Amino acid sequence: MREVVARNPFAKRRGIEPSKLLVTFLASDPEEEAREKVRQMKCAPEELRIEGRELYIYFPNGIGRSKLSWAGLEKTLKTPGTGRNWNSATKMLEMAEKLEASE
Fold first, then answer.
1. Which helix (H) or strand (E) is 90 found in, with range?
2. Which own/partner pairs from 62-66 qualify as long-range (CB within 8 Å, at least 24 positions apart)?
């Protein structure tokens, strides 16, 4: 989780609302061809970034208003994934660090 949080491509950008940022944990590492297709997807106003086995998606208008096709993303990447909003992801890291410190 530390690496997932550290690789967040939106971390240094001002105005990013954590509740509108989703990280999707992919079941397997997508091939380079699939990664390139995701990079070229037209999905404005949403923004997609793929880092390692994680797909970071920013929904400036909220996830509920998005026209982004989840089925299309999985088909393009050729792997399923499970998403968590950024608040949940950082909370999971916090919990893991507390567990680690108590050992």
1. helix 86-102
2. 62/20, 63/20, 63/22
Tokens describing residue 61: 């208008």
| Whole-number pLDDT of residue 101 | 87
Residues of the chain with pLDDT under 70: none
Q: 102 burial class (0-12, 13-18, 19+ CB within 10 angstroms)?
A: exposed
Q: Please list the residues that pair with 26 across neighbouring strands.
A: 81
User: Taking the complete model, does pTM exceed 0.85, yes or no?
Assistant: yes
- DSSP letter (8 states) at residue 31: P
* Cis status of the peptide bond prior to 80, with omega within 30 of 0: no
Instruction: List, in order, residues 6 or more apart from 11 with CB less than 8 Å away.
Output: none
